[in-house]
Each structure stands twice: as C-alpha cells, then as structure tokens.
Design goal:
Elements lengths: L27 E3 L2 E3 L4 H15 L26 H4 L23 H8 L37 H9 E7 L3 E8 L6 E5 L10 E3 L3 H5 L8 H9 L4 E3 L2 H7 L15 H15 L5 H13 L38 H6 L5 E2 L16 E2 L2
Antiparallel strand pairs: 1-2, 3-4, 4-5, 6-7, 8-9
Helix pairs in contact: 3-8, 3-9, 8-9
C-alpha cells in the first residue's frame, strides 16, 4: 500500500530543499523512505542526511555550497559560465574587471602596450546606425561568456556587480547594493517599475562609438556578441549612464578619478579584442590616464644635458589683422594650413567640416 502523506499534521516551514517537511510517523515517508518514531527512525534520519548531503548541501549555515550569502535561502549563485557556455570567441576578462576584482591594481604598462597596437583613424559617419543592429537587448543567445546559461545578460551583470543580492529563482535579481565605480557612490537596487531603471547596464565602449570605429563591417553574430559581452558591460547609476551617452575617453571620463585607470584599460581591452580603432584625441586621452597610473610615457623625455645657452631670435614683425574671418573650403585646406583638427569655437571651425557633429572638425 502507498504510504499516506499525513495531511492531518500541521504545516511546517520550508526546509533546505524548498519543501515543507511533515513530522514522521509510521505511515509517512521522506523522499521514499518510511520513517517511524521507533528505533527505525534513527536509521531513517541517517538516510535523509545522506540524501541531503548528496544534493550538495553542507555546513551549519543551511546555505547551498557556493552561495555568496551563507544562511540565506534563495540567494544561490548560478552555475559558472565556464560550465555552461562553451568556448567563447571573446578573450578572458583582464584582472582589472574580473568579477569581484574591480578594485585591484591595473597593469597600466600592459594596457599602454595594447593601446599602441590600436589603429588611429577618424570617426566614420553614423550612417545606418540603430540599436536593433546589435540584436535584442540583453539576449542570452550569444557565444561570449555567460551566453546560453538561461539568464538574460542584464541579470548576469547585476549578479556580478551587485552585493547582498536577493534573487527570484536562479536568474532574476530582485534587489542588491551597487558600489558604482563611475561615481564612487553606493546605491540600492530594487526591481520594479520606476526603480529598475535607476541601475542601468553601461556599455564601456558605447554601441554607437563601436559602430563609427569598425563595427559597421561586422556580421550579425559579432554585433550581438559585442552588445552582450561581460568585458564591455558595467552596472552603474542612471545619472552616470546619461552623462556618458555615446562618448569615448576623449569626451567623458568617470568622475571617480580612482577608477579612471581601470576604465580606460577596459576600453583598450575591448577595442583590442574586437579590432576597433581609436581617434587621435581618444588615443591621447587614454595615454595620459595610463601614464598617470604608472604606464611609461610613449615618448620619454631625454635626460638633461649641459648645453650652450639657447639662442632666441627676435620676434617676427607683426602682420596686421585683415579683419576677415578664417575660412577653409575643405579639410585638406585646413590640414595644409596646419590648422586641423579644428575645435568648435576656434577660427575656421564650421559645421560643414564636422561630419559627425562632435565638435571636432577635420579629425
């Protein structure tokens, strides 16, 4: 006869397996093992302990092995991407932004060496750009790290970048605490209408920036991978995300200066991995930051030497101002005159020479 389920007994709180235990009687079962209040109960208790141990639970805290929060049920960590996602076309995460290592020192010299390999070109036009080219937002259908793990990319990054996480199931992050590296502030995350958007996921190399610096030649799979690659994603605050927009290192840097070395190192890592180029202004901005955090200068100054006093010729005779505005018919004329690039507000700047409307003409 099949044992009864003992419906007459009081309901108990959930156990470690998420089930409500029933006090054992002679006609009740625990996972198919009959347990009574007689001497057999001792044997039954041992069998149940073995079953629970075999399911991967250990310790006195009652937390599953691998949980970042001992004692908290439902705060388990999803299986590692290495076990679920197959070979990735993206390189491994560098030390500066391995999950949990955002505050470790940056290898500025290595980043400077990679920067030296990036092509320097002008920014291409925005022609044809729209967000949909990079696939559905936060799709799991990618071959980079954490792809095909059953969780969308946004939850993967929240799980990586937030502390004190509470989840609903294996994937959905309900709440947590973000130590925002961009601003240096700490904010709480709560999933819900009007609150989820307070902690967006930033593309370190913006999608539009990538589009104008090499991504126009990619196939659909590479575009989708780029938009969901953890090496290019960072949880931040909405204000930081809006301030940055599609800016590169020449136009925006994190207000938190202690994170700037890691930030520009991530840009270099991403652009190296995906074969993107940098503009001259972006290259120079990154190089300055890396030099300030320990990387050798690209052009070290020679040691001082004893030389004869320098000769300073008299200044040339001043040329009277013609009063006419400076005008260059095209960028070639501006370059021939040694005026390029021309920044907004400088003589000779006009929107017709600034193809991408970023305030820098004839880059």
């Amino acid at each position: 006869m099949r044992p009864r389920s003992c419906p007459h007994l009081p309901r108990q709180p959930p156990n470690l397996l998420g089930r409500r235990e029933i006090p054992r009687r002679s006609r009740c079962t625990v996972r198919g093992v009959r347990c009574g209040l007689s001497g057999v109960g001792v044997v039954c208790a041992v069998l149940v302990a073995v079953i629970i141990d075999g399911l991967g639970f250990a310790g006195k805290s009652g937390a599953p092995q691998g949980s970042p929060h001992p004692g908290r049920i439902g705060a388990t960590t999803p299986p590692s991407s290495a076990a679920l996602a197959g070979p990735s076309s993206s390189p491994g995460l560098p030390l500066s932004f391995v999950p949990g290592a955002l505050e470790q020192p940056v290898d500025a010299a290595a980043a400077a060496a990679r920067l030296a390999t990036l092509p320097i070109k002008g920014r291409a036009p925005k022609t044809g750009y729209h967000r949909g080219l990079f696939g559905d937002a936060w799709t799991d259908d990618v071959t980079v790290a954490d792809g095909h793990n059953g969780c969308d990319t946004r939850d993967d990054i929240l799980s990586r970048d937030l502390a004190d996480i509470v989840r609903n199931g294996d994937c959905t992050v309900i709440s947590g605490v973000l130590r925002d590296p961009y601003s240096g502030t700490t904010v709480e995350f709560h999933r819900g209408q009007g609150t989820s958007s307070l902690v967006p996921i930033d593309h370190v190399v913006a999608l539009l920036d990538a589009w104008q610096k090499g991504a126009q030649q990619w196939d659909a799979a590479t575009l989708r991978n780029f938009a969901n690659d953890p090496i290019n994603l960072q949880a931040t605050t909405r204000s930081m995300n809006e301030q940055k927009g599609a800016g590169d290192a020449a136009t925006w840097l994190p207000p938190n200066k202690s994170y700037r070395c890691a930030y520009v190192s991530r840009i270099v890592e991403v652009k190296t991995a995906y074969g993107l180029w940098v503009t001259q202004a972006e290259h120079d901005a990154i190089a300055r930051i890396l030099t300030s955090c320990g990387a050798p200068s690209a052009d070290p100054e020679p040691p001082p030497t004893d030389t004869a006093p320098a000769y300073f010729p008299p200044p040339p005779a001043s040329v009277p101002d013609s009063g006419l505005p400076v005008y260059y018919p095209n960028c070639r004329a501006a370059r021939d005159a040694g005026a390029a690039p021309i920044y907004a507000g400088q003589p000779g700047y006009r929107p017709g020479l600034d193809r991408d409307s970023d305030g820098v003409a004839c880059e």
